[in-house]
Structures are given as structure tokens and as C-alpha cells.
Design goal:
The chain has 205 residues and is an alpha+beta fold. It contains ten helices and seven strands. The strands form two sheets. The chain has a four-stranded mixed β-sheet. It starts with a helix and ends with a strand.
Length: 205
């Protein structure tokens, strides 16, 4: 096991600017996620991994799904840092769950970088590890300020009546047994609207 881990580490250290990579987006990033990355993740992993994350994100196509193939020299020139710094930043992104890395070893290695969205602020502050590390890195005052910043506003609903309707109040249900018997007729009758199955009932719009 030690030799296997050692060999893996050596492959990472031997990464070359000529090695290619593509980026695959495995999440949806919004403005709140960007704030979480900067304010909650950065105090733990530092600024370079966050810059690398956004640089890989910028490599995605207009649909933000997949990038074209780049060389790591592209990252070196765009970020103006060394390959060693890129490797260390990448490993921190992997360790904290924002990135997965795959490699295909050839004369010029090919990497696949899969980007993942950050967890929510609520999940972060309830995480048994990240929450503690953030507190230790920031100190009590900065930590409490961040918690207050991400605190959700609560509205007192005392005195109000909940009049929200349920799904079955709005949509007509047909038991599955009846649906099975009528299935052939439904296929023939194109005047019926489309529907979908939930649990043991079929709902029509």
C-alpha cells in the first residue's frame, strides 16, 4: 500500500506543462456559491486553490458543461504561478471535496478535472471538521461575524394560519389499479393530457 501511494505521489510530482486536461462540470455554481468559496473555503485552503477553481471554471464552454482540451501551460501562463503551485492548489481542492482528478498515462499524460460545487453555508457550519478548522483559522470574532453574515432571516409566523394546499387538493388522482385497466383506452384517446406517476397514484394536469 505504501509503495502504491508513493508511486501515485511521484506521478503527481512529475506533472508537465505539456500534459493536457479537460474540465467536466459536475455541479451548478451560483453567486452564493462564489461567496461561500471566498468567505468560507478560502480561509482554510488559501487563495491559490480558489483561483485555480475559478480558472478551471472559466475553461468551460458557454453551456458550462465541458471544456476543450488545454495544456497545463495554459494554467501556468494564465495564473502566473509555477507547476508546483498548481499541483499543491489542485491537491487542496481535491482534499476539500471541490475537485476530482483522473489521469490517463501516455507519453503526454491526459487529465480529467471534475468540478464540484461547495456545500451550503448551513452544511459548512455544521460540518464536524470544516467548521472547527474555520474557527481555528479565523478566531472567535471573525468566525462569529461570518456566522452572522450567513444567518438566515426568520419571520415570526405566530398568529398566522397555514392555508397551503396539498398536491392531492389540486390534482385529480386515479388509483393505479384503475389506471392499469384504462391503460389501453388512454393510449387510444389522444385528447387526454399528459400525466405522471407518483407513489401509487397517477396524476393528470
Amino acid at each position: 500500500m505504501y509503495e502504491k501511494n508513493k508511486a501515485k505521489k511521484m506521478r503527481e510530482l512529475n506533472i508537465s506543462p505539456a500534459d493536457t486536461y479537460i474540465v467536466i462540470n459536475k455541479s451548478i455554481i451560483n453567486d452564493t456559491d462564489r461567496t461561500i468559496l471566498t468567505m468560507l473555503y478560502q480561509p482554510i485552503i488559501g487563495p491559490l486553490p480558489i483561483i485555480l477553481y475559478f480558472s478551471l471554471w472559466a475553461d468551460l464552454d458557454k453551456k458550462e458543461q465541458l471544456s476543450k482540451e488545454y495544456t497545463h501551460h495554459h494554467l501556468v501562463t494564465n495564473m502566473q504561478i509555477s507547476m508546483h503551485d498548481i499541483l499543491e492548489a489542485r491537491r487542496k481542492l481535491e482534499a476539500i471535496g471541490l475537485l476530482k482528478t483522473y489521469i490517463k498515462e501516455e507519453s503526454i499524460n491526459t487529465y480529467i478535472y471534475q468540478l464540484y460545487s461547495p456545500i451550503t453555508a448551513n452544511e459548512f457550519f455544521n460540518h464536524p471538521i470544516l467548521n472547527v478548522v474555520l474557527y481555528n483559522n479565523l478566531g472567535k470574532k471573525e468566525y462569529e461575524d461570518l456566522k452572522e453574515y450567513f444567518k438566515l432571516s426568520r419571520i415570526n409566523t405566530t398568529g398566522y394560519e397555514d392555508i397551503t394546499v396539498s398536491f392531492s387538493d389540486v390534482f385529480k388522482t386515479v388509483p393505479l389499479t384503475s389506471y392499469d385497466l384504462l391503460n389501453d383506452d388512454i393510449r387510444k384517446d389522444e385528447s387526454l393530457g399528459s400525466g405522471f406517476e407518483v407513489g401509487h397514484s397517477y396524476f393528470w394536469f
